[in-house]
Amino acid sequence: MPDLSRKSNQCLQHYLAVFADYEKRFGRNEAFDECLHHFFDQRPAGKNLSWSDRATGLAAAPFWLAADLVNTSELSALALSRILLHDSAISGELLEHLAKTVPDTLQWAIRYSKLFLRKNSNLCKLLRSRVEGEGWRVFFGVCDRLVEQLTPFDQLIHTTQKSLSHLSLLETLSYLSILAYEQFIPGKPTDLGNDDWKVYSRIIANKLGHCTDEDFNLSDERIGWSLKRHLSPIIFPSPAVTQECVENLEAFAVMFEATKERIDYEGSIDWFCFDPDCRYQLIPGRAVIYNETGEGLKAWRRTERKFQALWSYWINRGSIEFCEGGLAEIQIGSAENHELNAIAYLKAIRSKLVLKEIYGLDDEIEVAGGGHANLFQTLLFAELHSVFFQNAYVQPFQKHYAECNVVARALSKLAFNGLVDGENRFPMTWAEEDKKIERTVGWTVCRKYPKGNRLTAKAILNFWTNDLRTLSKRLRDQPRLPLPTLSERPFYKIGGYNFQFPWVVAEQNNLTAAINNLRRIGSRRSEQMSETRRIELRLADQLRRRGFAVEVGYQPERTQQQDPGEVDLICYRDGVVLLLEIKSGYVRTTPHEVWLHRTNTLRKAARQLKRKRPAVMHALIQDAALRTRLGCTDLRGDEHLYCWIIDTSIELDQQLIDGFLVVSLETLHLILRDERQLLNPAEKALDCINDTLFPDGFSALRFAEVVETGAVWMTLDKSWSDP
Length: 723
Description:
The protein is an alpha+beta fold and 723 residues long.
């Protein structure tokens, strides 16, 4: 056992005290899990206590020597994985003991923590020196094979980075912009909005990590000189094209493919680390990892289909509001742009509905650096840019490519035609910030500002802008902070200039971009707490419209043993009691992100419900004022109690976390509105107009049944069956 510091010993004593207390009241298993929950929840609390202090203190507790406790607990592997994140937190003796007595648990902890990727860590070396046996030989053999798959790509990426290191940030972006247009070749099977964007984001982030101040000191002269040397020779081919440009473009193409392959193999490692269905083997000629049942893949596909159905739902809702608002009867912008502008307006309305009804946004949003912007206009700004770049760049490029079948020639025609019309149609566009604001003032026209407003345009541009100088510094100083993806903030500030890439703006999902801009990148915004409160209040209003009496933010009686905590919503109607714990987050795009959400936010929510459930039932018996407010003064004791975790995410909808059902807020929302038919595309939605979830009328018991069984998805499931 390592020598404990004062802080680590303070943590150890806390866990020992918790274990002793709970062991007396509930037994050893409950006591062990309670200690682990305390660790996950960063207890003992204290500004001077670190994760390392708590991990070292927890690892020093003697209950890890009890194999029956460790094997029985579903939390032990997760807790050990967090201990393994700290090289000096756990002793070699304990690792050796765990490897012998609970090898499966320790192996899952290694997988969760990705310890095998940290080959130079002393902990990894210590572990390998202490464990023995055929099972461990196979396990580490599989780990080594997974890591070895990354090596050739890392070497290739390193070599190409070195050969291109003399290029400035602007020049790097120029070459990437040319490559990106290859993804728009008609008929090419690709998903630019996901896999390829990850590659471009990775390459740009790597470049930003090595930028100097010189990369951000731009002027018209420097931009012109750089583009003349590196971009023009490719899109305007002539005898003047230099071998250097050709070699640079080829090197970027090699880097792109190597990075893409590496990210693909990273996905395999994540599959090994976080998919409970993933098994491994070390048999010559066979894959080292495989799925035992395929259920995990089916669940992921079903989630993707739910995303698609919800996309139809909100588009249908947006269309209804678009028509009811009279927008379908008026010309939006010029006659030639009316149809595209109408699509932009419809999508902006869609996004506004989601952000207000699901994420608690108000009509104004906070902008990084201070100030506020109108929510709808901010969303419309992005949608209008998307249709503009699609119409003015992507479609003409595809037309030109169909004529010549050469990317460079198609880009040349696109750029040349732009020059004739006095417009920039290069693979990337740029403008000084003031000029960019001036050009978009017209997009802020509203009743309050019939001619538009410059300050509003500036605030909206700031919302969507990523300052690359600031990002470069953060990458060096705080590399673990969440970084904006290409689409979350698709306008890039370099010095005094604002750059856009048509291949990003034209194709991005602006709704997901807005949600993650606010909820992932802006997770520390001051307004997030008030938004979370509005989510609760707006759901409460929906439930009241269905006849439920709703208590928001009820605080059950605190006892010496514990504080149950504030209950988000308690609802009552016709003998049915709903206890709802609401969690809000962002749109997750990888299995790893979903796993983190499940083991952090939703694990904590289930723990909270477990604590609050008996406290609420006690309060319904003892608190006459609460019963009066809920309208259940004649409480009989045979009421139906449902405890649900309500999550703004869809990824874990209908799954159980420690016995508690997870229900996506969007699912609950459309159930309460009885709008299952709108999950279909518009043309089918009209055919399903009578598809009600409540054929005998709304009742509390039927509502609970619909939620518990996932009935809202059942008619769609018939067309979702996997081949």
